[in-house]
Each structure stands twice: as C-alpha cells, then as structure tokens.
C-alpha cells in the first residue's frame, strides 16, 4: 500500500461514456493551453479516494470531438504539465475476440495502429536529433497488473490480454475490415487508442488502457451496430470501470515514471 498523499496525480482520460467521473471529489476545474493547442476539455483536478487525480474528457464535455480530430498531443502535454506521470486511458471498443462481448472489460497488452493523418509525435520541427522511442510494449506492465488485480478484486468479467486495433473512424468498420483485423491478431477495435499511447511514451509517462466493450465488432453478431446497443453496454459496464479506477488509484499513483 502506498502513501498516496505524496504521490503525483494520476491522469484519467475518459472516453465515450465517461465524460465526467462521478466519485471524483473535485477541487479545481481549469482550462489550460499547451504549445500544441488546447486539450479536449478543462482539467478537472481532485481526489479519488485519497489519490490526487487529473481527469480529462477525450471528446470534450459535452461529447463533441470525433476520434480523428482529438488533439492528442495537447491532451498528453496538458496532463504532463499538470504533474501527471501515469495515465489511464479509458476506451469504448468493439469486441472481436469471442470472449469480448458487450459490457466486457479488457486490459489490453498490445496495439496495432491503423490510424492515419493524425498528429502522432512530439518529435517534429527543428530537432537536435531524430528520436525513436522504444514501443515494444505499448502499455506499462506494472500499471496493467494493478488494473488486473483491481478487476479481479471486484469480481468483474474481464480479459487481461488483448491486441487493440486502432482504426481511423469516425465510421465503424466493414465486416471484411473486421475479418482482416482478426487475421492480423486484433482482439478489439477502437478509434482512440492511438496516437495517445505513443505520445504518453514519448513524454516518458506510464500509460495503460482500460477498455469497455460496447458492441460486437462489425459482422461479429447477427445484427448491425446501433447506438442503443452501445448505450446499453455503457450503462451496464461503466460502473465496473469506475470500481477498477477507484480500487487501483493510489497504487497507480505510487508507480515510478519511466523518465522524470
Ligand atoms: N469499432 C471501432 N471503434 C469502436 C467500436 C467499433 O466497433 N465500438 C466502439 N468504438
């Protein structure tokens, strides 16, 4: 157990279905700016249990920024500037793997990036040297293990593995595209996992993904994907996501950053 009063704040990036974090005792809500522009929302700073947290709504509050237009660089920079060294990205996803149906929770361990045209690195412009970060393991394993322990502790239905296929959106996939994703080894598909994870790594922050399956990926059920299906899965599954966040928060805060 950590002494969370001394921990740096943990960043939580909420996605679809998590534009605000109930349970967060809000202390301040402040709009910020960065050299990369404005983040998607004001930073909401407060306490979850006794752990300092900075919450940011990836699609804005209210939800208005589509996945391909999120300013991922500004979001990560704003969290870093606020002292955050560990980030939990909460993502709504489509399930490809058989065990990943609606309302199932996944703590993935790998990514395949199919996005394009997004500002996806801090290393551009006039640089002293070219930088290639190592990205073999895109999610911080110690952080993943803390989320896994919390999900287990709460008796939730979850998977402790998964390859996250990050697609461009904002449209959903065709059935054939999902067959290709599956052939590539993807277990789940979402639109916001990248470049978020890589940007966190470039800043030397710990990063972990907590995904909620909100629909069977296209062609993986006998019906087309509807907003009603997605909303029902969010209603059913988001309480589990919040419980995992609450239980794991102070241990996440105690993690050492990759670089300071
Ligand atoms: N595909 C891509 N992104 C998603 C999906 C999906 O099926 N569901 C939620 N986000």
From TrEMBL:
Domain spans labelled Nucleoside phosphorylase: 9-244
Pfam families named among the record's database cross-references: PNP_UDP_1
Name of this chain's protein: Probable S-methyl-5'-thioinosine phosphorylase
Molecular-function annotations in GO: S-methyl-5-thioadenosine phosphorylase activity
Miscellaneous comment text of the record: Although this enzyme belongs to the family of MTA phosphorylases based on sequence homology, it has been shown that conserved amino acid substitutions in the substrate binding pocket convert the substrate specificity of this enzyme from 6-aminopurines to 6-oxopurines.
Domain of life: Bacteria
Family, per entry: Belongs to the PNP/MTAP phosphorylase family. MTAP subfamily.
Record: residues binding phosphate: 16, 58-59, 192
Subunit structure: Homotrimer.
InterPro entries in the record: MTAP, Nucleoside_phosphorylase_d, Nucleoside_phosphorylase_sf, Purine_phosphorylase-2_CS
Organism the protein comes from: Marinobacter vulgaris
């Amino acid at each position: 157990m950590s002494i969370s009063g001394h921990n740096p704040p943990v960043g939580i990036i909420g996605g679809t279905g998590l534009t605000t974090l109930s349970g967060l005792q809000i202390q301040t809500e402040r709009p910020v700016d960065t050299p990369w522009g404005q983040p998607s929302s004001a930073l909401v700073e407060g306490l979850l249990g006794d752990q300092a947290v900075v919450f940011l709504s990836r699609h804005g509050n209210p939800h208005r920024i589509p996945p391909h237009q999120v300013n991922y660089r500004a979001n990560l920079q704003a969290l870093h500037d606020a002292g955050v060294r560990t980030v939990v990205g909460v993502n709504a996803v489509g399930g490809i793997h058989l065990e990943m149906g609606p309302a199932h929770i996944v703590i993935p361990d790998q990514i395949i990036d199919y996005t394009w045209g997004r500002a996806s690195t801090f290393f551009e412009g006039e640089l002293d040297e070219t930088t290639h970060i190592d990205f073999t393991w895109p999610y911080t394993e110690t952080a993943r293990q803390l989320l896994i322990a919390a999900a287990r502790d709460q008796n939730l239905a979850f998977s402790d593995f998964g390859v996250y296929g990050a697609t461009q959106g904002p449209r959903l996939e065709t059935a054939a595209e999902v067959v290709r994703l599956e052939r590539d080894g993807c277990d789940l598909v979402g639109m916001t996992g990248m470049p978020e994870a890589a940007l966190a790594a470039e800043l030397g922050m710990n990063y972990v993904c907590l995904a909620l399956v909100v629909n069977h990926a296209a062609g993986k059920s006998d019906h087309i994907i509807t907003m009603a299906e997605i909303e029902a899965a969010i209603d059913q599954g988001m309480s589990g996501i919040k419980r995992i966040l609450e239980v794991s928060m102070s241990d996440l805060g105690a993690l050492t950053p990759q670089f300071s």
